[in-house]
Structures are given as C-alpha cells and as structure tokens.
Amino acid sequence: MRHFPIYLALAAFAAATHAEVTVVTGHNNNGGATEAFSFPHVPRPAKNGTAGTFTIIDGQADGNGGGVDKLNDGKLPTEEDQRGENFFFNAGTEGGRLRLDLDEVKTIQQINTYSWHPNTRGPQVYKVYAATGTKDGFNAQPKRGTDPKTCGWTFIASVDTHPKDSDPGGQYGVSISDSAGPLGEYRYLLFDCVCTETDDQFGNTFYSEINVLGPAEVASAADSNAQTSSTSDENRQVLVLTGHVAAGDATEAFHIPRVPRPAKTGTAGTFTVIDGDIDGNSGGVEKLNDGKLPTKEDEPAENFFFSAGTPGGRLLVDLNEVKPIQQINTYSWHTGTRAPQVYRVYGATGAEAGFKSEPRQGTKPTTCGWTFIASADTRPRNAEKGGQYGVSIRGAAGALGDYRYILFDCSSTESTDQFGNTFYSEINVLGPSEVAPNGDAEQAVGAK
Ligand SMILES: [Ca+2]
Ligand SMILES: [Ca+2]
Fold first, then answer.
1. Distance 253 CA to ligand 2 centre (A)
2. Would you say residue 353 lies in a domain?
3. Ligand 1 centroid to 233 CA: how many Å?
4. Could you tell me if 327 and 193 lie in one domain?
5. Count of domains in the chain?
6. Tens of pLDDT along 2-51?
7. Which tens digits make up the pLDDT trace of 439-448?
8. Beta partners for 376?
9. What is the pLDDT of residue 220?
10. In-domain check, residue 238
11. What CATH number does residue 49 fall under?
12. If you measure from the C-alpha of residue 369 to the centroid of ligand 1, how many angstroms do you get, rounded to a whole number?
C-alpha cells in the first residue's frame, strides 16, 4: 500500500468551556507525496507564505539546509529530499526553538506546518506557544530549560505526527485551530521542536513551510483544500475525531464537540469480552449497545469497564453479517482517570485467510485476518482527565470498509492506581443510513 495516511484529531482542552484546540494531521507516504502538498484535512500551504520573521532562539541550523527564511517564503520543495528548500536543526542535535515575530498583535485562526523527507526527518514533533509580548516578565527568547509558560507565553498545542503503523518517510501536514473561533490574539509564536529519533544523527525534521494565518487567509486556504481533496486517493484515509467535555460540564445528552450524539437505537449485534475480565461493579457488555446512556458522571452499572487493576482487554462485536461501516463512535463518562479512551480498533469480514475471531492479548490481530482501522487516545495533556469523551472514527471519503466483526483492543489509561479502565457508556458501529446527516466528516471538523 503506497498511500497510507492516518488522520488524528487530538484535542487539547480549555477548562470550563467547550472551546478546544484541535490538531489535525495528514501524512502522504513516500511515493504518494507530491509538490502540491495535498492533504484532505490539512489546508494547502498558503501561496503567499507568512508575513513576519523567524529567528532561532535556541539550537543550531544545519548548514546543509536553507535558512529560517525558508519557513515563510511561500515556496515548497519540489522533491522529497531537497535540503536547500527546508529548514532543519543541525544533525546530531535534539532540535531547538524557533520564534516567529508577526510584527504586530494579530488574530490567529490557524497554525499550519509542513514537512517532507524520505525518512526519519519527515515527521513533526513540537510544542507551540504564543504571546502578545506585553505580559509582565515576558521573555522573548526563552531557551530550552525555561518553560515558556513561566515567562509570558501561552501553550497552544503539542504535535507528534509519528505514524504508528507505517514508515516515517513522506510528507506531513499539521493544522492547529480552535473549535470555537480564533486561537487568540498574538504577536509571537514559539515552536519548541524536538528531533524525531536519536538512533542516528538524522532526526531533525525538514520543515518546508510554517503558516500562521488570520481569519481571511484561512478562508482562501479552505477553498483550495476543498478543490484538491476529492482528487487524491483517499480510500485508506481514516479520520479520528475526538471531543472532551470537562467533568463539571458534562450532561446526559452526551453533547460533545465534533462527535455525533450517540445513536438512540444502539448498535445491532453482540458484544463479547474475548480477553480480560469484566469488573463486577460494572454493567455487562450489553451496556455498550443498548442505546442507553448514564445519567450521571459516575454510574458504574450503566457503563462497561474492565476489572480494576488490570491493563484492559479485548472486545469483539459481531454484527451478524458483513455490512458497510461508515462510522465507529465511542462514548465514555467518569469523574477521573476512567474517563479517557485508549484503544485500537480492527475490522474483519470473517472470510479472511487464517481468520481468528478471538485473538487474545499477545496476538496481533493483523496476523490473523484483521485489518487495522485506527487507534484512539483521548488522554488530555493539559487538563483534568475527568469528564465525558467521544471518539468518532470515519473514512475521510466514504465508508471505513465492509466488515462483520469489529475488535476493540482497550488499554487502561494509567497504572498509577487500580482505576484506569475506561467507563465505556456506548459504542456505535454505524452503516451509511444510520449516520446522522450532521455527522459528516467535513462538517464535524469545522463544527463547534
Ligand atoms: Ca518554504
Ligand atoms: Ca449504554
């Protein structure tokens, strides 16, 4: 498979509101990448670049690369290993910090970053911060070792585009935005860039372009994206949208940003635990597809969860027949560490050569007939873990595939105490006619 992008929408969280910073990433494998930098859910790079000045405030540029001015010149490399058209930190170093000065405080709607390399210098790993420059104690050049948050900077998002199941080479696009409007008003952006690996000297990302866009600039980028997204090969592209509602704000309506409401009719089919133990305080697996939801935040009997003190387990869904699967949506609710969801999901028709319907821990499902669909990890980096989570997995352009069996390999969210297994309230596996009209992927990406 030469083209195997995975889209992950990870959310960072703003306390007490539904506004969330969303990070959408795209990957075109070697061979699938072109100078068009075309990603279905990441806008194309802005032709005009970004007005402002990039400066290295910690670390060293690699003398083989272009200068920092390559980051906002609006020009892109035309091939996969074009040193002079990318900026990268020096070989053998662990990255560095870049600052963008926009010259004045502006409304920031999106931050989009692009990279291209045939190997380990393709993926992007960074944290981004922003500042007006007017706060007391503002440090315009915080070196590594200084947390920018302690000197006038606001944390925006953390990015890591390492693919879990494919070669790291290729082209990556990242688009950071806020579900409820602009990211904020800022003059300075700080990118704390980390090398993607330290196995050899060559782990610093080939950054081709960094766009920091205002509302008017985003609109034109969205137009160009819409035009290109239908022309590329998207059959294998999977989008994972996640949403979080903080513990005090969650209600029995399960109204979660970007994620469709749970289906009232549940999911036709049978859930079975094929590895792991059910917690005796939980409801049974039939709670996962009964179409009913807990009415309060810590209602064990209305959730399914694996036993306390165990690392999780595996759930099998048998839909009774092969069906086109349009969306897989999962919902959870708890006051603490049992709220976030961490799982991998697979699908199978049952007719695959060597198919095993009940692969236990230690057996990779992909070795016995299963197709990997997606992984989800909704643990927030910068907020309380409690609350309600929704995950919606769908094809970027159509159905996920035709399957009879769906396998969830669920992991505990933490192991510092006994209580890391997720309170799953409902799992929907939906065909095309069951998906809500407003559950369309494109709408959901931009929806509040
Ligand atoms: Ca450039
Ligand atoms: Ca239920």
1. 13
2. yes
3. 25
4. no
5. 2
6. 333 344 443 333 333 335 788 888 899 888 899 999 987 888 999 888 99
7. 433 223 322 2
8. 343
9. 53
10. no
11. 2.60.120.260
12. 43
Of the bound ligands, which one is closest to the alpha carbon of residue 74? 1
| Domain's final residue, options 229, 262, 285 | 229
- What is the CA(361)–ligand 2 centre distance, in A? 25
- How remote is the CA of residue 425 from the centroid of ligand 2, in Å? 5
DSSP assignments along 244-275, one per residue: EEEGGG--TT--BTTBPPPPTT--SSEEEEEE
Tokens of 88: 């990268």
Give residue 301's identity as a one-letter amino acid code: A
pTM for the whole structure: 0.53
pLDDT value of position 219: 57
d(CA 147, CA 6): 31
For residue 227, the model assigns a pLDDT of: 30
**Cβ-based neighbours of 427, under 8 Å, separated by 6 or more:** 267, 271, 288, 289, 315, 317, 328, 329, 330, 331, 408
C-alpha 15 – ligand 2 centre gap (Å): 27
The pLDDT assigned to 1 comes to 34
The verdict on 309 and 407 lying in the same domain is: yes
CA of 85 to the centre of ligand 1 (A): 6
Cα–Cα dist 189/178, whole Å = 16
Give backbone dihedrals phi and psi of 55, rounded to 5 degrees, phi first: -135, 140
Range of the domain at 315: 245-446
Ligand with minimal distance to 65 CA:
1
Q: Are residues 138 and 266 in the same domain?
A: no
